[in-house]
Amino acid sequence: MSSKESAANEKIVLTGDRPTGRLHLGHYVGSIKNRLALQEKYGHCFYMVADVQALTDNAERPEKVRKNVLEVALDNLAVGLDPKRTTFFIQSQIPEIAELTIFFLNLVTLARLRRNPTVKNEMKQKGFGENVPAGFLAYPVSQAADILFCGSNLIPVGEDQLPVIEQVNEIAAKFNSIYGSTFRKVEPLLSETPRLVGIDGGAKAGKSLGNAIYLADPAKEIEAKVMMMYTDPGHVHVKDPGKVKGNVVFAYLDAFDPDKEAVKELKRQYERGGLGDIVIKKRLIEVLDHLLSPIRERREKLAENPNRVMEILHEGSRTVRIAAKETMAKVRKAVRIDYFG
Ligand code: TRP
Fold first, then answer.
1. Domains of the chain and CATH, by start
2. Does 166 score more than 60 pLDDT?
3. What is the percentage of the chain residues whose pLDDT exceeds 90?
4. Stretch (H or E) spanning 89
5. Which DSSP string do the residues of 234-271 spell out, in sequence order?
6. How many other CB atoms are found less than 10 A from the CB of residue 105?
7. Quick one: average pLDDT of 193-213?
8. Ligand 1 in contact with 19 (CB < 6 A)?
9. Rounded Cα–Cα distance for residues 156 and 159 (Å)
10. Cβ(48)–Cβ(35) under 8 Å?
């Protein structure tokens, strides 16, 4: 392979979170686990705190967004993203992303934005109706800029983000066809568990739905949340046969218990009858404690020195900006607005 070809095939990983709240187990299985694996595999990745995107539906709550920049950075550091291998940066500190968004906005129609299933769903959830902020409707366009400005092409995301990545590729293809080949195709990377149910059995665990277990939850709280989990309302006595399908405890054991065989056996017992909810809940509490205790400890330690975390973000933002300027020079030339060289 020539060096040009290998550069064209090189994988550059980028992920991001909106700083609107702490991260939960849905994020962990949906994307964070893959972030860690990719950091091991490719050695170099980008992690972006998407504060500009968070403001698209929090314009009136700037303090909330600002406060959560630190929280999501802490979550990602605590799970093991390593600033030496993953460049942490803040979206708003890269003005080239905003600049690139402006040019991309000309390449999508309002009708196409309104049809994006991810945006449609979120609009419904947030109750926007016709009064959707234009910036929110257009967030897939700015997400295209987030991804393409640094040449990234492998994006670990939850299932709900797939239509956004599809639209990113449409935008890149349209740009390339009009202005000449500039951006590469982007691949989403889905996890084995792209969607985690809420503890109440709701379709999705979510920050806004109040039905999630957070990475930073104290052990007592995790225990209480598991004890509240929806199981099978028909499973009244221990001896009764119980349902595994739709049973939240089993959904979480499937996602987090490393001993798949043991889980299989528990399911058989549960379906046969003779296995109480308490037993499976106790097991899940143990499994989650094993996963989350070290994360919680690292997080508490990191949180003692917030300035250090902000410095990691500052440093990363400075590094990333160099690449951003190079991309924008290319884009200006392609769009024929490089008047003064
Ligand atoms: N939209 C993503 C979310 O809500 C966050 C995000 C913003 C993102 N820009 C990104 C994710 C770029 C991956 C790549 O979770």
1. 3-197+305-334 (3.40.50.620), 219-299 (1.10.240.10)
2. yes
3. 88
4. strand 86-90
5. T--STTS----TT-HHHHHHHHH-S-HHHHHHHHHHHH
6. 16
7. 80
8. no
9. 10
10. no
199 lines ligand 1 (CB under 6 A): no
For tokens 């539906």, the residue is 57
- Please give the average per-residue pLDDT across 241-252, as a whole number: 96
The position carrying tokens 């979550």 is: 75
DSSP tally for the chain: helices H, then strands E: 16, 5
147 in ligand 1 pocket by Cβ < 6 Å? yes
CA of 106 to the centre of ligand 1 (A): 21
Dig out the tokens for 157 from the structure. Answer: 């995301």
From CA 276, how far away is CA 278, in angstroms rounded? 5
- 133 is written with which tokens? 């902020």
In angstroms, what is the span from residue 241 Cα to ligand 1's centroid? 42
Mean pLDDT of all residues in 316-325: 97
Alpha helices in 149-259 (DSSP H): 162-179, 219-227, 248-256
Long-range contacts of 287-291 (CB under 8 A, 24+ apart): 287/253, 287/256, 287/257, 287/258, 288/25, 288/213, 288/222, 288/226, 288/252, 288/256, 289/219, 289/222, 291/256
At residue 230, what is the residue type? Y
The reported pTM is: 0.93
**DSSP codes joined into one string, 4-30:** HHHHHH---EEEEE-SSS--BHHHIII
